[in-house]
Amino acid sequence: MNSFMLLQVSESVLAKSAEMAEKDPHGAIITLVSVSVVFVALIVLYFAYTFIGKLSSGEIKLKMPKKKAAPKPATGGPTPEEAAAIALALDQEMNGEVYAAIGMALHQYLNDTVHDMESYIITIKRKPSF
What we know:
The protein is an all-alpha fold. Among the domains are: 7-57; 80-110, no CATH class. The protein has helices spanning 3-23, 28-57, 80-93, 96-110. The protein is elongated and about 90 Å long. The two termini are 34 Å apart.
């Protein structure tokens, strides 16, 4: 920015300040407007947080548009042969490795070996910067 632009900005700011000083010599209008803006913002935030709290706690339930249900089989479920085929396919897919991984994860979780013991002390080591 050159000095001419700074001079223009300063003159326009001074002109607007002088105009505001003439219209509101004690600052009542600017005070009223600023306090009103703050209170309106606080009221809006109060209602927004109250609504979100009620929504997350389940007091208010939003109505979701209904989806078309998938057509149900006429017999009400798979036949015994189909159920046996599905069970065999799932048994082949979930081999012993999957069961071992699930068992190991449960063992670590239940024996509390998943997390490290924390000292809750923050250590900052300074490194020289060049």
